[in-house]
Amino acid sequence: MENKVTRQLYMVPYVLWIVLFVIAPILLVLYYSFFNIEGQLSLDNYQKFFTPVYLKMTLSSFWYAFLITAITLLVAYPTAYLLTKTKHKHLWLLLIIVPSWINLLLKAYAFLGIFGTFGAANQFLELIGIGTQQILFTDFSFIFVSVYIFIPFMILPIFNSLNQLNPTLLDAANDLGASKWMTFKRVIFPLTIDGVKSGCQVVFIPALSLFMLTRLIAGNRVITLGTAIEQHFLVTQDWGMGSTIAVFLIIFMFLIMFLTGTKKRGV
Amino acid sequence: MRKLLNVFLLVSLASAILLLTISRMNAAQGLTSGNTLTIFNWGDYIDATLVKQFEDETGVKVIYETFDSNEAMMTKIEQGGTTYDIAVPSEYMIDKMRQENLLITLDHSKLPNLKNIDERFMDLPFDPDNKFSVPYFWGTVGIVYNSTMLDGIEIDSWNDLWNPKLKNEIFLIDGAREVIGMGLNSLGYSLNDINKEHLREAKEKLDSLTPNVKAIVGDEARTLLENREAAIGLVWSGVASEIMYENEELEYVVPKEGSNLWFDNMVIPKTAKNVEAAHQFINFILDAKIAAQNTEYVSYSTPNKEALKHMPEEMVNDQRFYPPAELTEKLEVYENLGKKNLAYYNELFLEFKMHRK
Amino acid sequence: MANAIIEFKSVTKQYDNDPPVLDDVSFEIERGKFYTLLGPSGCGKTTILRLIAGFTEASDGEIYFNNKITNHVPANKRQVNTVFQDYALFPHLNVFENVAFGLRIKKMKNAEIEQKVKEALSFVNLEGYENREIREMSGGQRQRVAIARAIVNEPEVILLDEPLSALDLKLRTEMQYELRELQRRLGITFIFVTHDQEEALAMSDEIFVINKGKIQQSGTPTDIYDEPINRFVADFIGESNIVTGKMVQDQLVEMVGKRFECVDGGFQSNEPVEIVIRPEDLEITTVERGKLQVKVDSQLFRGVHYEISSYDQDGNEWLVHSTKKAVVGEEIGLYFDPEAIHVMRFNETEEEFDKRLEAYTDGSGHGK
Which of C312, A215, C5 is nearest to B356 (CA)? Predict the structure, then answer.
């Protein structure tokens, strides 16, 4: 009996945390979303979300988030794979993760310099004879910087799942006639799919609501739902509309989590 | 586990020692936590040595915090988490805060230096009789351009920006009123126009500017323009004067169709705890010599006519930043248009941004 | 040899500058037999397996498969399949797909795959388990899946890397019978790696005893048990009493200060040697009738026999397996036949050993 009581006691901080910092804010956001700009209870905001401006924004958010996630995955998976093959893999992993400790704003400003008309990137292009290009404020620079920022978050779960992979399984596949590519396709990738999924979640969901980079690196050429939320809360002070977009973002996130949800497999 | 505990203890100890040292140092300077003044201002908008000087003269400890938009500032004051003793909102926001009873009436008897302020900037519509606010800086919105990059193209009007030769050469600031306002002005409408048809028209006109717009940016506009990333920028006069100081190729013009005239005034929010020290500080800033020093640092235009006497002549005589009265009369001050109209401005601005894809 | 399916010629495997894992090893594997590579951990037996499978390459020497050099043939192109120590079943595939893995790689038709997988599963008594997930299978069942996955590919050689080590004793004994039986039915070559000498003795046609990267001795289980070439083999295979002594002349050996008749020969006179007598060849008798006189030190009941530890006057330990009980602390006599004595030369290679054996037993095998 006492055991049960103490166990419930241990649950208190957890429950408090969940209620105060997860459930309450979501409910609050939901509550605000039902008030229009004049403070009246209405569904105006939801109606407004289904106008071309916001639908287009949603579409472009998804498109960019998808591109960012896909490219990040393409870069991160081989990198994580090579890392697990190196001698001091945890040291190399650390080196890749270290940049994520640096402030995001700082990194973004650094790229302003690198990608500028007279920046290092263009100096290099000039050197190899291609000549100065418009790099900053393009889709390329936006995706490049986003990928750069998200890569550690993608590498980490993939690295972990690759690291947990029993190397004998690779021998087994090889033994059964599988080439390297076949082994990857039929054994390595399916067994690390959980790492890939959580990596994609960790990248896709924040990428959906990126806002600072859209201004700094893309010069507001890329408008995401995150940009709109920021504007509604800080500039227009239309908390209702901001909350409505947030509600949709939350729904999207749950959908994504649900779609990429994992059945636990273990041996 | 033990190791973790040790690290935790070490960090705690280090923090405690740091805190103790800070409070000792403060005590040594005669600063006690009882007599503090919390100032809420725009980033990089005061000469920090003046804050130090004020602390030394009065023994009041100043806590200085910054914001980057009027709305963010107001949101924080409304929430009341921190007790700000002084804030520096722009004119339309003062109007709004005044109406929402967020401000304390100023005691003019405690502000003898108020006499230094130019009559032109007193008793304006957003705060009749300056009951709630005292001018801090003022300025205009205009065009900064790099003449060496323009092949002799002259710029003195908003409509000059629509020149097809200026492809990808313009930076706009990320502000709905500034950008929509530019559209309105270029069509001969008022900056405070709330006629939806006029606003639509302005937005469509802006859409046609799209090929010329390189990016819509924030504070980083300074560095970008300074570094010749593009030839032209829509900026506040203060930003212009600052970067012109760094890059002499740059020029600033207030377009002839008209533009925005703005004020940032000091106010005491309802949340203030140290109203006495707040008055002390406002009066300190209004002092002619202090204001002159502050202006030289911040490089916006000062409303303090006595301060001008203590400033370098080339600065005071620069008509770009101290335009004569007949010019400022043509400029418009932003009015508080109300939430709904403001929301419409923002929606149009968002649409304009989206159009650029 | 015409019937050799695998042949190692002076194969060495060495990592960097460490001492070699395999040191100039040569041997032949014949078609259709059950081989066991036996040795302590780290002796190089698994390395041999990995070389055959193609998971690693030899540093020196040649490996032949069906008389063709196979050193650089990749693992996925070899007619060899492995049953791994931890089975290495694919956790994301069910039993059917695990077994079908190799066939799918070969792009076999679905109907054919289905038939072959069913056949293989019935071979290992796992009919009806096709749709089970691996995590739902017990250790013994996983073992069988692993075997089915190997045999379904119809390889010429199956390599088994300590496949029984994870099973409990009862299941292990059962699987020993099954594996042996399976090998007979399939008629293909099994190469089995283990450190368990009982397992090796029970299952194999041929045993290679390996130590420190070298094959110490190879032969049938009885050969190796009865005629260990050196102290290591004698000690590693079964229980042994080993003492030093000298060979006075052929058929006469001196140990613990006494001379004994024996059946070994081909030595120089008075050559120092080591003598092995198996505990089960010692018989308890009275002090007077015993060839050796010892004092019983301790006694354990082992079920089928008593294991008695005793010491002679020189302090040599004598282990006796006897169905008769002894009394701890009592003086007893130990009797043994001349055939029970096995004399070993120091540092004799397997080749020399075989030659000597042939010389003094006129080629008819070691008479016993």
Answer: A215
CB of A267 within 8 Å of any CB in chain C?
yes
**Chains B and A are touching, with contact defined as 3 or more CB–CB pairs separated by less than 8 Å:** yes
Triad A125, A131, A132: Cα angle to 5°: 85
CA distance linking residue A170 with residue A172, whole number of Å: 5
Centroid of chain to Cα B11: 39
Q: HSE of C228 in the Cβ direction (CA atoms, 13 Å)?
A: 24
B90 DSSP 8-state letter: B
- Indicate the CATH number for domain B139-261+323-356: 3.40.190.10
Quick one: which of A230, A258, A210, A260 has its CA closest to A62? A210
- Candidates B182, B238, B220; CA nearest to A215 is B220
Contacts of C198 (CB under 8 A, 6+ apart): none
C188 Cβ partners below 8 Å, 6+ apart? Answer: C32, C155, C156, C157, C158
CA distance C159 to chain A (A): 10
Contacts of B353 in chain A (CB under 8 A): 220, 223, 227
Which class for A52: exposed (0-12), middle (13-18), buried (19 or more C-beta within 10 A)? exposed
The yes-or-no answer to whether B32-136+263-316 and B139-261+323-356 have a common fold is yes
3-state helix vs strand vs coil in chain A, percent to 5: 75, 0, 20
| Distances from the Cα of A138 to the Cα of A65, A72, A144, A218, angstroms | 16, 18, 10, 6
Contact B174 A220 (CB under 8 A): yes
In this complex, do A237 and B339 lie within 8 Å of one another by their Cβ atoms?
A: yes
C-alpha distance from A84 to closest chain B C-alpha (Å): 28
Q: Locate the chain A residue with the closest alpha carbon to B357.
A: A221
Reported CATH class of domain B32-136+263-316: alpha beta
Tens digits of per-residue pLDDT, C80-124?
Answer: 999 999 999 999 999 999 999 999 999 999 999 999 999 999 988
Q: Is residue C217's pLDDT more than 90?
A: yes
Cβ of B339 and A222 within 8 Å? no
CB distance C152 to C116 below 8 Å? yes
The candidate with the shortest Cα–Cα distance to C227, out of C365, C43, C83, C325, is: C365
The alpha carbon of C59 is separated from its chain's Cα centroid by a whole number of angstroms, namely 25
Element (H, E) at C38: strand C34-38
Nearest Cα to C182, choosing from C230, C148, C212, C156? C148
Closest among C195, C197, C226 to C353, alpha carbons compared: C226
Neighbours of chain B (3+ CB pairs under 8 A): A
CA distance C35 to chain A (A): 20
A79 contacts A157 by C-beta, under 8 angstroms: no
Category of A232 on φ-ψ map: left (φ > 0), alpha (ψ -120 to 50) or beta: alpha
ipTM value of the model? Answer: 0.84
Residue in the block written with tokens 């090796």: C200
DSSP letter, residue A222:
S
B54-101 confidence digits (pLDDT tens): 999 998 999 999 987 888 888 888 887 778 999 999 999 999 999 999
Going A123 to A127 to A128 to A131, the CA torsion angle's sign is positive
Q: Kindly determine whether residue A53 and residue B351, on different chains, have CB atoms separated by under 8 Å.
A: yes
CA gap B42, A216 in Å, rounded? 19
Q: Does B92 count as an annotated binding residue?
A: yes
Q: Decide if C139 contacts C172 (C-beta within 8 A).
A: no
Angle at B68 between CA B67 and CA B72, to 5 degrees: 70
Average pLDDT, chain C: 90
pTM over 0.90: no
Domain coordinates of chain B in residue numbers? 32-136+263-316, 139-261+323-356
Q: Are B88 and B45 in contact (CB under 8 A)?
A: yes
Does B176 reach chain A within 8 Å, measured CB to CB? Answer: yes
